[in-house]
Design brief:
Keywords: DNA-binding
GO molecular function: DNA binding; DNA-binding transcription factor activity
Strand order of the largest sheet: 1-2
Order of helices and strands: HHHEEHHHH
GO cellular component, one term: cytosol
Helix content: 40-55%
Protein name: Rrf2 family transcriptional regulator
Largest sheet: 2 strands, antiparallel
CATH superfamily: Winged helix-like DNA-binding domain superfamily/Winged helix DNA-binding domain
Oligomer: single chain
Strand content: 5-15%
Organism: Isoptericola sediminis
Number of strands: 2
Length: 152
């Protein structure tokens, strides 16, 4: 599975919004600078997030972006779906829409299991968890072995 730059930047930007204690709107420029995200690209991402109800924008001299709902109700999966669509695609199709035959028939189960695993992780973590540095124990335990950090 590959996480796009767009998804990575979107999650980082929403975590940055969640970290704001006072709930005041944050200008896109400030988000871009805080997370080292190209400003123009971030503007496009924020439009996608606004369209999907993840963030709201405020106009004016003190305008900017805020989360549209409480940070503990916005999962990483919500953010990724808002900018990239479904979490797992195989040849640009959802796994449930595929059909394999013969020796590859069980491959469908592999793709569905992959989707279930990705969903289990990304739907468990909220942008509030990220902003607070308090990942759920189940997620943290997945990164506890050295092999989790190494490519085979």
């Amino acid at each position: 599975m590959r996480v796009s730059a767009k998804a990575d930047y979107a999650v980082r930007a929403t975590a940055e919004l969640a970290a704001g204690d006072d709930g005041a709107p944050v200008p896109a420029e400030s988000l871009a600078e805080a997370q080292h995200i190209p400003h123009r690209f971030l503007e496009s991402i924020l439009r996608d997030l606004r369209r999907e109800g993840i963030v709201a924008s405020r106009r004016g001299a003190r305008g900017g972006y805020v989360l549209a709902r409480p940070a503990d109700q916005v999962t990483v999966a919500d953010v990724v779906r808002a900018v990239d669509g479904p979490l797992v695609f195989v040849r640009d199709e959802r796994p449930a829409d595929l059909d394999y035959e013969g020796a590859a028939a069980d491959l469908l189960h592999v793709w569905v299991a992959l989707r279930a695993s990705v969903r289990r992780v990304l739907e468990e973590v909220t942008v509030s968890d990220l902003a607070a540095g308090s990942l759920p124990d189940e997620i943290r335990s997945l990164t506890s072995s050295d092999s989790a950090w190494q490519n085979p």
